[in-house]
Amino acid sequence: MKKQLLLLGLLGMTYLSSYAQKINRKAVVERHTVSVASFDTLASLSVGNGRFAFTVDATGLQSFPNYYSNGVPLGTQSVWGWHSFPNKENVKFEETLKEYNLNGRKVTYSVQGAKNAKSKEAINYYRENPNRLQLGNLGFIFKKKDGSTAQITDIIVQNQQLNPYTGQITSHFSLEGQSVTVVTICDPNQDVVSVNIQSNLLKTGQIQVFLKFPFPSNQFLDSGTNYKNTDQHQSAIVSSQTQSAIIKHQLDADQYFVRFDWSKNGTIIENKTHEFILTPKVEDGSWEFSANFSEKSPATTSTFSAINQRSLLAWKNFWNSGGAIDFEGSTDVRAKELERRIVLSQYLTKIQCANEQPPQETGLTYNSWYGKPHLEMHWWHGIHFALWGRVDLLEKSLDWYAKVYPNAVGIAKRQGYEGARWQKMTDPAGEESPSSVGAFLIWQQPHFIYFAELVRRQKPTKSTLQKYSKLVFATADFMASYPHWDEENKRYILGKGLIPAQERFNPEETFNPTYELVYWHWALKVAQDWRKAMGLKPNEKYDKILQNLSKLPVKDGVYLATESAQDSYTNPKFLTDHPSVLGALGMLPPTPMIDMPTMQRTFDKVWDVWQWHDTWGWDFPMVAMTAARLGRPDKAIDGLMMNIRTNTYLPNGHNFQDERLRLYLPGNGGLLATIAMMCSRDDLPTGKTSFPNNGQWKVKWEGFKKMP
Where in the sequence is the signal peptide annotated (predicted)? Predict the structure, then answer.
């Protein structure tokens, strides 16, 4: 094994004496300033602070939300904005449970298969509630010279730019020959959108601002443009002054406020139900306003100038902290595009994924899966923060696990296991959501140990151990109680009763998936390391699993997806979705469970036979990680830049998947994690990278932390 690792470490890696050279970070970031020249529904731009995001059209606000509803929607979302419909039928969560006979005992799972009408109602209710709110549509109303309201076709877009280095969106457009310039920013400390407008149309009263409250659609996707159901929620101006106003929005038991503050004078009125109009009263062509979204009635909001100063400083500090990479001088035609994806992915994950909850897969732009986080995706959303030297941004979401810990313990106990079980599809309180797939996934279970280990590696202190050890051990306790003892073959088996990361398998038949076996072994070993670091004896249960866990399933010289799928590479169904067998080496470091030649053959097999058109955005980073660990940098780049629709990165940097998921942040996070590990990881010698050594790649990097 050591000889194999040494050989692979020496093959295909690029020596870079320049890896620690200083990078002009501002230049790298600003050469990927986003430019938009039309009302492109897939090129909407966002500002945000990690816990709140605001997405705009080419006017710099959300002036035409319906037009963008099937693209990247014009969302206003926060980490705190949640809503639940009333439980009118008084359904119980227990009615979502289905009993399975697995490994000689009965286990209950919350699944979608309804037993009866009451069960169906319960399943739908707990799947759909709570749902993340679209907090409001905030846009311009433009009046033409004849007094009529301008339509989108009347607006001539000249140029709109997002400068990621400053966090500013600057929009230039015109109406009937009159130019308008709008600068849009977000307060780094509060959920405030602030706007500066320059136009002679202000003097003639041809620019107004509207705030419109949509109603939750209660659908899988919510673009925030449901203006029906007006009688099912309430909104009103609760205070109004010459330069400020507060509006309250009430939905069932949930409420929040929007405070407007503006320069000079102006008036605000309720134009119609759930729609409010702010009209500036100015004599020149300059005006500013801010909108503060808050759970509680907010105090006075800062001026545009003050918010802009804070925002500029916050973004400067972000870009000049942590890691950076520079491909200037590379001749590979893909280098410029890869660098663009890297820069914009940092911006997008910073404004959409850096908060006190695991994010949803579509971040804070629009709802997918009712706005709920998926814990198996937290790895893809979050580990790059640590690898890029911004571990504090990862830690923001780790406190959530402590908050919902009692629920995780309750799930494990109900199913007859020890410790805490982390579910796939959850809500802000850590409650389960019924899912015929998510209920059986287990690869999210070791994630917390991985997160905590990344923190420990960068903060190797007693306080780190004290803060996270309880959850590390509770996670491992479940993992040690979950495997089933196979008396005939004297081994522990994962399953039956699981679905692997490749979601193509029947849970009642599936056991011993390759990736999950390796992850189980690695995480339990790390948990033992934590015990040692705390001066504790090794846990006997952990050791028992480590010593007797099933070997990886092999057939015809390659690793199978699962031991139960001997037709892993001949059944067309099993050649789609995530090729997670590769995650056993790539996402995870080399371990004693992996035979390198076998993984080399497995990689080639997957590369040749996989139906790449039926994959997801994070599959391409995963493939690249495996190629990098195997010493195959050409394949790492080929994987990252594969020309497949789900590997599309839009002009705004978002990873497009399909008509449902027009953005997909696990792809962005996965890309960033891969770039970091291609430059710095435990099994990569100092001074080398996993970029091709063919003279076409010139790579400078700094500030990355080693991936395990």
Answer: 1-20
